[in-house]
Design a protein that fits this description.
Blueprint: E1 8-9, E2 12-18, H1 22-32, E3 36-41, H2 44-53, E4 58-64, H3 72-80, E5 90-94, H4 97-105, E6 110-113, H5 119-143, H6 153-166, E7 172-179, H7 182-189, H8 191-208, E8 215-220, E9 223-229, H9 235-244, E10 254-259, H10 268-281, E11 290-292, H11 295-316, E12 320-329, E13 336-348, E14 352-354, H12 356-366, H13 369-391, E15 397-401, H14 411-422, E16 429-434, H15 435-439, H16 442-454, E17 458-464, H17 471-474, E18 481-484, H18 486-494, H19 500-512, E19 516-519, H20 524-533, E20 537-539, E21 547-548, H21 549-560
Parallel strand pairs: 2-3, 2-4, 4-5, 5-6, 10-11, 13-15, 15-16, 16-17, 17-18, 18-19, 19-20
Antiparallel strand pairs: 1-2, 7-9, 7-10, 8-9, 12-13, 12-20, 12-21, 13-14
The chain binds ligand C2E and calcium ion (2 copies).
């Protein structure tokens, strides 16, 4: 075992001898000076001052109980109450047997009776006490989290196992507490303040889940695990933490994932994986702070994990297929197929077709979307080129962009390269950017969109009406078309048959001088109403579902003949 060398000064450990009798001090110094550096104090107060000054380097204190100014027992009590000092072992020097017991009870490590025994006995007792204290320090350094003093995860799991042994029938919950948007706290408050916050959160939790029936640890940065008797409601605890951590209640929000009444046949780690899955489920939820695990969550999680694991292979094996949904220009007498939207599908060898709703949000969350989208964009561009060649006509295709991609400084280059590699023009590749992408950090997004537009790309604002961009902002936005959010249309036709909102959006588009695209159009009624309202382009099941390339090509051929 490696031993801490903090307490070594010039290679020797420091010992303090506190005894009011000169002869005793000299005798002990004589015995010890070969192996230790000996400090000496002749009364209790002087001893205390020396200990305070040398608390980081002292390895042991030899303490006479009968001393002027501050008695040995008084000093001992003072030392044990001081967190800087309490771990320095104290050996009591006494001739009184009753005091031996008392001092051991007050925290002394050992005692040496007076008159003194053989020097070797004294030395042996001293080195043993030092060794024990240093070992304990090493153990507690790995057992306890330095910042909060709670268990570290490794020890936590062991204690939980032990707890189960002693309480085999207890109905227990595994709970995972996380701080919402923890990474932002570091940015906002700085590390020191955040450390303070974490300490008070730990104190709060330790106050609620006492060691008599619960086990508690800090798992990672802002993740605390608790193993405690089952309770039905954790929302009160969340409230208590917010109000208990004075001064930060409005800024610090915690969430709890609960694996209730755990199955003790599962190993301890798996129980807390379940609690963590439940906590992660409400990671971005601003109104729900407690989430309870159930098996479907685990299935979803495993499914997501499978998709992520298999992504590289799937991409390499071209399991992703780009479908094309026709868009029809309805401004003339008869609808004309004018362009298409590229929508990706995953043809999984075992699971069959997986729709983008199952993997796009997942890949947006972990960054894989960039690789997938680049593939979709390139496939779309290749198809545009191929169709131009085959049909002698240009059919623009719009591709979807995810929010995170808007921050990629290489984005414009990526598109430029795709366009030049495939031999199409920037005018033929339309880019759908969802309205909500514009809402946050709008200036950065607006800059990026402007850049794309300057290169000739046609920008469609997708899902318009869902992101609540202000009218003020819209007039400033660099866009070439508005694409009405599908829900918007659904509401208008299904609920109140009130199309006024659609008219307003069409007015906005007119004001901006851009066409309006309605997607999700399923019925003739909707189509006719939208046409009447002045909508320019229609996409939806009424005309066609998204189609595999070959079927889309057949439709193209038909429309050109
Ligand atoms: P989105 O961009 O809003 O695409 C429109 C969605 O509506 C598509 O769903 C389309 O199949 C569906 N749709 C079209 N017409 C109708 C209709 O008449 N009725 C109904 N009920 N639905 C209709 P899909 O293909 O499942 O895609 C879902 C979302 O996934 C897309 O929403 C888009 O946000 C995303 N997505 C799809 N492919 C890609 C991609 O290659 N890259 C990225 N970044 N996102 C994609
Ligand atoms: Ca879209
Ligand atoms: Ca859309």
């Amino acid at each position: 075992m490696t031993r801490s060398t903090d307490n070594l000064v010039d290679g020797k450990r420091h010992i303090l001898v506190a005894d009011d009798e000169f002869i005793n001090r000299e005798m002990l110094e004589n015995i010890l000076c070969d192996e230790y550096d000996v400090l000496k104090a002749e009364d209790g107060e002087m001893a205390y001052d020396l200990i305070k000054q040398n608390c980081n380097t002292l390895s042991l204190i030899l303490l006479d109980l009968m001393m002027p100014k501050l008695s040995g027992l008084e000093l001992l009590a003072k030392l044990k109450g001081d967190p800087d000092i309490k771990n320095i072992p104290v050996i009591v020097l006494t001739s009184d047997q009753a005091s031996e017991v008392e001092s051991l009870r007050k925290g002394a490590a050992d005692f040496i009776p007076k008159p003194y025994p053989e020097p070797d006995v004294i030395k042996a007792r001293i080195s043993r006490s030092i060794e024990l204290a240093e070992d304990r320090q090493i153990i507690s350094a790995t057992e306890r989290d330095e910042l909060t003093g709670l268990f570290t995860s490794e020890y936590f799991y062991r204690y939980v196992e032990q707890f189960d042994k002693f309480h085999p029938t207890a109905d227990m919950d595994a709970v995972c507490f996380d701080v919402n948007h923890f990474h932002i706290l570091n940015e906002r408050f700085g590390m020191t303040k955040v450390a303070e916050i974490l300490r008070s959160l730990a104190d709060c939790l330790a106050g609620i889940f006492t060691f008599t029936d619960s086990v508690l640890c800090r798992m990672a940065d802002d993740t605390f695990l608790v193993y405690c008797p089952h309770r039905d409601d954790y929302s009160r605890i969340i409230e208590k933490i917010s109000s208990g951590c004075e001064g930060m209640s409005t800024m610090i929000k915690m969430r709890a994932g609960v694996y209730a009444s755990c199955d003790k046949k599962l190993d301890v780690q798996s129980r807390f994986v379940r609690a963590k899955i439940a906590a992660d489920k409400i990671r971005n939820n601003y109104s729900v702070f407690v989430s309870t695990f159930d098996e479907t969550l685990l299935k979803e999680e495993l499914f997501s994990e499978q998709l992520v694991d298999e992504f590289p292979k799937a991409l390499a094996e071209k399991q992703f297929k780009v479908f094309f949904q026709p868009k029809y220009d309805i401004t003339g007498d008869t609808p004309v197929l004018s362009s298409a939207e590229a929508l990706v599908r995953w043809f999984h060898p075992e699971l069959g077709m997986i729709s983008p709703g199952a993997f796009i949000p997942l890949f947006e969350g972990n960054g894989l979307i960039a690789q997938l989208d680049e593939y979709v964009w390139r496939r779309s561009a290749e198809k545009i080129a191929e169709w131009k060649e085959r049909f002698g006509r240009s059919i623009p295709v719009s591709v979807n962009l995810s929010r995170a991609e808007m921050y990629d400084p290489e984005l414009v280059n990526t598109f430029e390269k795709i366009v030049s590699d495939t031999g199409i023009t920037t005018k033929e590749l339309y880019l759908e950017i969802t309205e909500s992408a514009y809402v946050r950090d709008s200036s950065q997004i607006v800059d990026r969109v402007s850049q794309l537009r300057e290169h000739g790309f046609f920008i469609e604002m997708d899902d318009f009406g869902s992101g609540y961009s202000s009218l003020n902002m819209i007039s400033e936005l660099p866009i070439d078309a508005l694409k009405l959010d599908m829900k918007f249309i659904r509401n208008a036709f299904e609920k109140h048959k009130d199309t006024r909102m659609i008219s307003i959006v069409i007015d906005i588009a007119e004001y901006l001088g851009v066409p309006v695209i309605a997607e999700g159009v399923e019925t003739e009624e909707q189509y006719l109403a939208l046409k009447k309202l002045g909508c320019n382009i229609i996409q939806g099941y009424y005309f066609s579902k998204p189609l595999p390339a070959e079927e889309f090509e057949a439709k193209l051929q038909e429309s050109f003949s």
